[in-house]
Amino acid sequence: MKDQATAILDAAAALFAERGVNAVGMGEVARAAGCSRATLYRWFADRHELHRAFVHREARRIGALVAAETDSVTDAVLASVRHVRESPELLAWFGAADARTTAELAQSSEVVTALGLGAVGDELAARWLVRVIVSLLIVPGRDDAEERELVERFVVPGLVPR
User: Fold this and answer.
1) 17, 74, 112, 137: which is deepest, by most CB within 10 A?
2) What's the domain range around 102?
């Protein structure tokens, strides 16, 4: 059986996909998780902490997937974007109403470590790489080919020594 925190994050994920991140209240999460608000607040002090825990969990999950399937910066960026787009509960974070919340959380250390440092190994470069991934998710290219070209021409040269 899943622990209570995992059940709460899973319930929040379903609500995020359905309604958007900032439209979901703590009471709704508690009801969806089948627990009391008191139990929810024992695990997560406030909505910001719930959001942070969810984003960190998902960044670690996607970071592990990307690390297992890619061996280049270009492929790591594009795989990160693809995994988010394939997940409705993650894609919800990149709509107009929720992009600011996402941008703030994207620069936290766990996200940078999970997504950026695995690809480039330098913390400042990793922080920039996470910003690139967030940017592609908020403002996508016309198609996969254009996004690959953007990453190859403008991102990789700044990250990979000649």
Assistant:
1) 112
2) 47-159
